[in-house]
Amino acid sequence: MCELLAMSANVPTDICFSFTGFLHRGGGTGPHRDGWGIAFYEAGGYRDFRDPHPSVRSPIARLICDYPIKSHIAISHIRQANVGGVRLANTHPFTREMWGRTWCYAHNGQLAGWEALPLGVYRPVGDTDSEHAFCWLLDQLRQRFPERPSNDDARQQLWRWLHRLCERLRGFGVFNLLLADGDYLYTFCSTKLVHITRRAPFGKAALSDAELTVNFAEHTTPNDIVSVVATEPLTCNESWLAMRPGELLVWRLGEIVARYDEEGHG
Amino acid sequence: MCELLAMSANVPTDICFSFTGFLHRGGGTGPHRDGWGIAFYEAGGYRDFRDPHPSVRSPIARLICDYPIKSHIAISHIRQANVGGVRLANTHPFTREMWGRTWCYAHNGQLAGWEALPLGVYRPVGDTDSEHAFCWLLDQLRQRFPERPSNDDARQQLWRWLHRLCERLRGFGVFNLLLADGDYLYTFCSTKLVHITRRAPFGKAALSDAELTVNFAEHTTPNDIVSVVATEPLTCNESWLAMRPGELLVWRLGEIVARYDEEGHG
Question: Which residues are in the Glutamine amidotransferase type-2 domain (chains A, B) (predicted)?
């Protein structure tokens, strides 16, 4: 199993604390030695850092911990390879441009029969089930919505369609998803995703995987809202909420703005 | 004027020496303070590092110097903003996927009337003339070649078409180009691009912009072929060749494999 980590916040926030715990799972406390990546949507654009080596020994991972990049949305992934060799082209997160936005995607799980998903505009560069599913997903969105939805009604139609597509992919196996377009973070649970929203009054948090405690009150202002989504809880002294299988959450500025469940209710 | 740097090599080679001199131009010896980026095609895939801050002070740039990434093709760009604000979305190199390959692009120069270039599948994320021209260029290639050319004849047709598209863009202003697809590096000269090919017997080279000398003989094997393309010569004790305006060079494994000139001769 790979590990997923995402953040949505209403102010540019660094993910160093969560990422420090998270990357210990990449060959440290966890078995995920087959590469890692992290993507940031900053005010001025998008960038990602990927490395096909274990995260605990990666100088690039150390840079990310030491050089706080502040973003509204971040997505990270630690890989344990199943489909596709250990190489950079198979290292999440994957990105494609659609509607003049950079879309970022990370997947946890394994699909069966994914080769049958038809491809259109987007083609995989590597050879993983994950990237193939991403290309299919974006193409399906694009076919239904040739232009970017520009009002609330159209956005909700888009999200409902995204939920149906995720449900279809769940039919192929395990499909825990992190997806973002710079404005919204989408998280879909197939088997395992938990989340936490931190807001005033802020308290202390202690990492489960490393000896590190942070007092968020010292690093925040009273209006900050910061949510973190992960495969497993990253802290040992806070209550994380579990997503339900078949559930899609749409996040914006640290808060859930839409929720679609197994029965298709929005 | 921005500054361009590219490398094509027949063995995975780090670009640290050239990049060290190059990045001094980003707010050091040069006026290019508006961000920088570097992209690597490694055996296993593609990755890039971009920063909207001056390269001389960038911790990410320091990492690139200290942590040698070995690649067959690298492309780098230091920006002096003219069209589009100083932000990450406007920071070269730009990338898009076409035919299941990651295409990487960096541009030096300024275009006039570029807004009229019609867009198709690819849309700009930022607001530069450079990215708009890239989206147009890829879409034009894709329209003419829906699938990736798979033999020499088709490839030469592609390159000839690419040369014609570059010539059209040169009609809009200054268009010095670095473009790559992982196999081939394409360099098009509108006003200024120079290149050098290093092979056995290797000698010493001294940077023009920083106090650094390297003896390539100590870092190479007799079969290595490494070519560097840049806006200006990076070393002060070697002979760099100037490209001609309107010339497209196609590089593979450190050598020029095709050349198209102003009259359209291949």
Answer: 2-254
User: Are B72 and B41 in contact, with CB atoms under 8 Å apart?
Assistant: yes
- What band does A29 get if pLDDT is binned at 50, 70 and 90? low
Give the residue-averaged pLDDT of A200-218: 89
The number of residues in chain B equals: 266
- Given an 8 Å threshold on Cβ–Cβ distance, is B123 in contact with A99? yes
Q: Each residue of B147-204: pLDDT tens digit?
A: 999 999 999 999 999 999 999 999 999 999 999 999 999 999 999 999 999 999 999 9
Please give, rounded to a whole number of angstroms, the shortest distance from the CA of A34 to a CA of chain B: 13
In the DSSP assignment, the letter for residue A171 is T
| CA pair distance A261, A239, nearest whole angstrom | 22
Residues 6+ apart with CB under 8 A from B215: B202, B203, B204
Domain ranges of chain A: 3-260
ipTM of the complex: 0.94
The mean pLDDT value for A243-250 works out to: 98
Q: Do B99 and A45 touch (CB under 8 A)?
A: no
- CB distance B52–A43 less than 8 Å? no
Question: Tell me, which fold does domain A3-260 have in CATH?
Answer: Glutamine Phosphoribosylpyrophosphate, subunit 1, domain 1 (3.60.20)
Contact status, residue A206 vs residue A235, Cβ threshold 8 Å: yes
- Is A236 one of the annotated active-site residues of the chain? no
Looking at this protein, which amino acid is placed at residue A35? Answer: G
**Residue of higher predicted confidence among B159 and B86:** B159
Probe site for chain A from B47, B69, B181 (most A CB atoms < 10 A): B47
Residues in chain B whose beta carbon is closer than 8 A to a beta carbon of chain A? 42-47, 49-50, 52, 59-60, 63, 66-67, 85-91, 96-97, 99-102, 121-126
